[in-house]
Amino acid sequence: MQIIYTLVMIAMGLFCIICSVKEVPWFFNNRKAGFLVKLFGMTFAKIFYIIIGVLFIIAGIIVAAGVITIS
């Protein structure tokens, strides 16, 4: 079961990073992401979502290594 959590976390992280780098319009026009863009600007929103993506990937690697067990 942990492999599923690992793959989902890594996929979500890659999704966030790719959408941020490519500036996918529907990603940043979303209600929550649009709020960040309006409040802080596109550059901040891109950096924020890249960091979130990296954190998801790190969490996936930690789960895969068995440091944290999800039951």
- Computed over alpha carbons, the radius of gyration is 14 Å
Shape: elongated
What can be said about the biggest beta sheet? Answer: none
Indicate the mean pLDDT: 91
- Amino-to-carboxy terminus distance: 8 Å
Figure out the total of helices: 4
| Helix and strand pattern | HHHH
Question: Summed up, what is this model?
Answer:
Helices cover 83% and strands 0% of the residues.
Detailed description of the structure:
There is one protein chain. This protein is an all-alpha fold. It has one domain (2-65). The chain has helices spanning 2-22, 25-28, 31-40, 42-65.
Describe the secondary-structure layout.
Layout lengths: L1 H21 L2 H4 L2 H10 L1 H24 L6
Helix pairs in contact: 1-4, 3-4
What are the defining features of this structure?
single chain; 71 residues; mainly alpha; 4 helices; elongated
